[in-house]
Hints:
By secondary structure, this protein is α/β, with parallel strands linked by helices. The protein has one domain: Metallo-beta-lactamase, Chain A, CATH 3.60.15.10. The chain is 22% helix and 27% strand. The strands form 2 sheets. A 6-stranded mixed β-sheet has the order 1-2-3-4-5-6. β10 and β11 (181-185) form a beta hairpin. Zinc ion is lined by residues 88, 90-91, 188, 241-242.
Amino acid sequence: MRVHHLVAGRMAPPLGPAIICHVLLVEHPEGLVLVDSGLGRADLADPRRLGPARHLLRPQSGVTAIDAVEAAGFDPSHVAHVVLTHLDFDHVGGALDFPQATWHTTAAEWAAATSDIKAVEKTRYRSAHLGGSSSMQSHAGEGDPWRHGLSAIEVLDGITLVPMIGHTRGHAAVTVQSDAGLVVHAGDAVFDASHYDPALAKIGILRAFEKSVVRIPSRLKTNHAALAALHADPDVTVVNAHDTRVFPG
Ligand SMILES: [Zn+2]
């Protein structure tokens, strides 16, 4: 399977640095598969839909998943699946532009956003986003044992959700077995990529931001260590959602 890396959102937080919404577009036998979906057109046309968190992240107009899919030369109507690391607005908002697609998330994340809502999480999930697909698959359980003590839930041939809770209660990384090795999209399980890639310089402001929005702080170190172990595997490429330095090209 061929994997394309796309920028599906740009945000300019007042405290900097500028960040992106890094998503994957997979040429899968079942159709195009989007891994995470960044921002969507309706939200950028009316940013009030994003709630107060928009002031913290300041999404920039004109950069969305559907625009990125078109710019890469693909027909958005051919996107058959959207596999989501979690349901924060800057990860699911772009999926609204693919209502024909089946959306996938963990059952824990779906419950946190819909039926088991805690006061502390009220501003991060937007109800306008959660009914955007008539076909929503929430995947229960931990899945099968996988690498480095992690587990994996296969959602499509060659694509898995790897539960990595912490940033949210149901967060998962997404793995894609591509022609060029295994791509691991870590979502927001890490913000500063130097946590897993020692060749990069530390960015203190990203680390501080990660701590300010984490739901289960005790899981941060565990997740960073797991991603560092995956990064060290010779067949693996790890990327995360927001660090511009790990976007190829
Ligand atoms: Zn995010």
